[in-house]
């Protein structure tokens, strides 16, 4: 056993660091650090810089323009990006729909979609969840009825993250209402500019516009946009979920958050001394640090086991639960570090009230409640572990 | 990065695995526990014959020259069987102090007798009012014409009731809590002036209160320089923490397995209770605790040779997580076993007791949380 990185891995880390120092704009890093929302242009700018370096698609095979990196390189890359406050990679195109297209798509679909995903020319969003189908995806009701060379789509999607910017949406639609739950579903790619699509913002409890409802009213979608076979979309959906779960531990981001929290706590003066010297607060920091060490080691064990190829199995559900619970704990500590200055509510563009870090701490605390809900709620993750690992 | 065991480590793992499977079923363990000594001398001899009593010591002395990883592999196997024999007391704790401080002659003689299984040792370090602070030492050794005169008392000395020899930490100078002034001595358990009150512990082991009333020691009983024992004592505690973490992993794994098996079989309301989601989720949390414990044990086992600050930070974090996860696994194992979990005859209750008592050895979670708090560093924010 050897927990240290090899010389090659350390050299790779230096390469990533050098790139981040040169290419990541300070204004963007500052926004990420202080939990401010990026504009669409800022997101795209960063994705394009990664693309120029050949690092836009960290887990694609090299033949399609990916990095071909193994799990350990991806882990190092994630960690460095988070430590430098790089924007999190937008997953919808590059990590969600693209692997499905690579695995199940036609040659024509690959040529049509992959280059634009790689270059961030097209913004994708995910159309999985519906008002009646959250974690229970097999409950989708949005209908697609074949009409010549088209499907006619009717229904509603919800929780569509950053769908307000999207050019394309990938959807699970019901193509056979009489089949058993998972068997009548298909995987469709839909142009957001097609007549009949309406996007309506959903404002979340932190006052932000991050998610949307998307309505489909007789939307005509070419049959050529079907990925895989009709009624076999569940296979695509499951495959996508395994990709969604890579990097799910969020170790890099958690390290970065905790490191920032410690800096903040040593600058905040409470009763004449730094908050970090207050024993109860310090003990919670220390406890979070121990939990982070356990999370990181568990993640490395999983990464290392996956290094021979393939994607992590049900073990990644442990990482999702552990990682999200810890990040939520840290956002609670941030809120406490701000004291009464956790209270002012600031819209985008308002001047800060109180310490700079404090402006968004309560928003983030509330926003991060989503971590244990999305991507398969933590309860669903427990169901997965119970079934797949414990055989219950 | 590499999490795989090497060939030698796998061999050790197999040796221990085979031994406890063949010779250490739960009934045998219970028979040994209820014997006068509280463990089996035959088993101790078997450990010696297999070379397991020499794992941490150098090859010149007849040992295996193992580090933290080898210790982890061996003791995890012991934890699966809830081994009662005084491996921690003799090999890990006393052995490390002797190994760090002893002269070549002392090491050859004392470690030789440990490796061969001829003598068992106990480390008499902690005192009654000191909780887990190993620098709170009031036991005094005062130099005299024949060597040293030892006075004082030691608390909850693990396997102190049956040890042939005691490694005693005494103060030769300084005050309570001082880092300097601690000296280690080897004291025969039957020396004049040594009195022992042995007793069983909650988890089926044995321990003793030991007092020293004008015990005359020869100068040759001293290990290392006068007043300089602290680093060796801390090295022993750190090795001990790795061993306890590993033992906890082994015990947690069995507690999880037995609980899983039980909820798959036990029928209530016409179905196996493992069908109930409320229980499934608790079982998942137990398994997640085991994964965390295992991760931290690996981290601790691989950290013994690091520079002090990082090593101490990792070991404190590991023992903290072991304390937290051990309690969770124990309580949930009992709860999911229902009334059966409350029974002495149900093996899982013994695993639960050992796991909870591990938190009372070499610092509990509160103690290690404080240590980790003290070591908390504000690191560089990159951007």
UniProtKB/TrEMBL annotation, chain A:
Domain Acyl-CoA dehydrogenase/oxidase C-terminal: from-to ranges: 231-390
Residue intervals of the Acyl-CoA dehydrogenase/oxidase N-terminal domain: 6-119
Cofactor or coenzyme needed: FAD
Residue ranges constituting the Acyl-CoA oxidase/dehydrogenase middle domain according to the UniProt record: 125-219
Keyword tags: FAD, Flavoprotein, Oxidoreductase
Family designation: Belongs to the acyl-CoA dehydrogenase family.
UniProt-recorded name of the protein: Acyl-CoA dehydrogenase family protein
Originating species: Isoalcanivorax beigongshangi
From TrEMBL, chain B:
Cofactor: FAD
Keyword Iron: no
InterPro entries listed in its UniProt record: Acyl-CoA_Oxase/DH_mid-dom, Acyl-CoA_Oxase/DH_mid-dom_sf, AcylCo_DH-like_C, AcylCo_DH/oxidase_C, AcylCoA_DH/ox_N, AcylCoA_DH/ox_N_sf, AcylCoA_DH/oxidase_NM_dom_sf
Domain Acyl-CoA dehydrogenase/oxidase C-terminal, chain residue ranges per copy: 237-355
GO MF annotation: an example: oxidoreductase activity
Acyl-CoA dehydrogenase/oxidase N-terminal domain sequence ranges: 6-118
Listed Gene3D superfamilies: Acyl-CoA dehydrogenase/oxidase, N-terminal domain, Butyryl-CoA Dehydrogenase, subunit A, domain 2, Butyryl-CoA Dehydrogenase, subunit A, domain 3
Domain spans labelled Acyl-CoA oxidase/dehydrogenase middle: 123-215
EC number: 1.-.-.-
Annotated keywords: FAD, Flavoprotein, Oxidoreductase
Pfam families, per the entry: Acyl-CoA_dh_1, Acyl-CoA_dh_M, Acyl-CoA_dh_N
CDD domains in the record: ACAD (cd00567)
Enzyme class, broadest EC rank: oxidoreductase
Protein family: Belongs to the acyl-CoA dehydrogenase family.
Name of the protein: Acyl-CoA dehydrogenase family protein
């Amino acid at each position: 056993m050897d927990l240290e990185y090899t010389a090659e891995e350390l050299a790779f880390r230096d390469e990533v660091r050098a790139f981040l120092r040169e290419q990541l704009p300070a204004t963007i890093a500052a926004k990420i650090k202080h939990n401010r929302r990026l504009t669409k242009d800022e997101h795209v700018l960063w994705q394009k810089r990664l693309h120029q370096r050949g690092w836009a698609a960290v887990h694609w095979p090299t033949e399609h323009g990916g990095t071909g990196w193994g799990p350990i390189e991806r882990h190092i890359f994630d960690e460095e990006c988070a430590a430098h406050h790089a924007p999190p990679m937008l997953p919808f195109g590059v990590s969600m729909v693209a692997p499905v297209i690579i695995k199940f798509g036609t040659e024509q679909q690959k040529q049509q979609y992959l280059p634009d995903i790689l270059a961030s020319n097209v913004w994708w969003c995910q159309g999985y969840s519906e008002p009646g189908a959250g974690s229970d995806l097999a409950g989708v009701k949005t209908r697609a009825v074949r009409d010549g060379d088209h499907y006619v789509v009717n229904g509603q999607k919800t929780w569509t993250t950053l769908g307000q910017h999207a050019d394309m949406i990938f959807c699970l639609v019901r193509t056979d209402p009489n089949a058993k739950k998972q068997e009548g579903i298909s995987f469709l790619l839909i142009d957001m500019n097609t007549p009949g699509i309406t996007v309506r913002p959903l404002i979340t409890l932190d006052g932000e516009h991050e998610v949307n409802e998307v309505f489909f009213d007789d939307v005509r979608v070419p049959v050529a946009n079907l990925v895989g076979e009709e009624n076999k979309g569940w296979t695509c959906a499951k495959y996508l979920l395994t990709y969604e779960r890579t990097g799910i531990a969020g170790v890099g981001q958690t390290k970065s958050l905790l490191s920032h929290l410690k800096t903040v706590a040593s600058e905040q003066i409470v009763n004449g001394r730094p908050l970090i010297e207050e024993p109860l607060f310090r003990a919670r920091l220390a406890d979070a640090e121990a939990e982070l060490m356990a999370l990181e080691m568990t993640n490395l064990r999983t990464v290392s086991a996956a290094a021979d190829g393939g994607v992590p199995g049900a073990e990644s559900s442990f990482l999702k639960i552990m990682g999200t619970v810890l990040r939520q704990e840290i956002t609670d500590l941030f809120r406490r570090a701000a004291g009464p200055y956790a209270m002012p509510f600031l819209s985008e563009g308002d001047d800060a009230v109180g310490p700079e870090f404090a402006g968004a701490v309560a928003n983030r605390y509330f926003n991060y409640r989503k971590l244990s809900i999305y991507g398969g709620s933590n309860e669903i993750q427990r169901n997965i572990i119970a079934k797949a690992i414990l055989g219950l | 990065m590499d999490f795989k065991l090497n060939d030698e480590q796998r061999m050790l793992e197999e040796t221990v695995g085979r031994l406890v499977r063949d010779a250490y079923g739960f009934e045998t363990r219970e028979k040994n526990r209820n014997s006068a000594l509280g463990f089996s001398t035959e088993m101790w001899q078997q450990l010696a014959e297999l070379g397991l009593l020499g794992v941490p010591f150098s090859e010149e002395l007849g040992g295996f020259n193992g580090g933290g990883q080898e210790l982890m592999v061996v003791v995890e196997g012991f934890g699966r069987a809830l081994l009662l024999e005084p491996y921690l007391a003799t090999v890990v704790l006393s052995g490390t102090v002797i190994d760090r401080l002893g002269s070549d002659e002392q090491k050859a003689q004392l470690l030789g007798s440990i490796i061969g299984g001829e003598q068992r040792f106990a480390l008499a370090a902690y005192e009654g009012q000191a909780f887990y602070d190993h620098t709170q030492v009031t036991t005094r050794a005062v130099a005299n014409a024949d060597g040293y005169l030892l006075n004082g008392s030691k608390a909850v000395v693990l396997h102190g009731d049956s040890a042939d020899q005691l490694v005693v930490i005494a103060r030769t100078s300084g005050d309570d809590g001082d880092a300097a002034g601690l000296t280690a001595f080897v004291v025969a358990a039957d020396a004049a002036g040594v009195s022992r009150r042995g007793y069983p512990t909650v988890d089926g082991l044995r321990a003793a209160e030991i007092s020293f009333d004008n015990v005359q020691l020869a100068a040759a009983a001293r290990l290392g320089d006068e007043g300089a024992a602290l680093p060796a004592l801390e090295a022993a505690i750190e090795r001990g923490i790795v061993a306890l973490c590993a033992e906890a992993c082994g015990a947690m794994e069995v507690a999880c397995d037995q609980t899983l098996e039980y909820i798959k079989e036990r029928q209530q309301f016409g179905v196996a209770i493992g069908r109930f989601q409320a229980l499934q989720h608790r079982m998942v949390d137990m398994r997640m605790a085991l994964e965390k414990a295992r991760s931290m044990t690996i981290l601790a086992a691989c950290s013994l040779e690091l520079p002090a600050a990082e090593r101490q930070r990792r070991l404190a974090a590991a023992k903290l997580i072991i304390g937290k996860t051990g309690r969770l696994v124990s309580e949930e194992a009992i709860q999911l076993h229902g009334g059966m979990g409350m029974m002495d005859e149900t093996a899982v209750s013994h695993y639960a007791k050992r796991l909870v008592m591990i938190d009372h050895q070499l610092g509990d979670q509160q103690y290690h949380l404080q240590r980790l708090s003290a070591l908390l560093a504000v690191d560089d924010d990159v951007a």
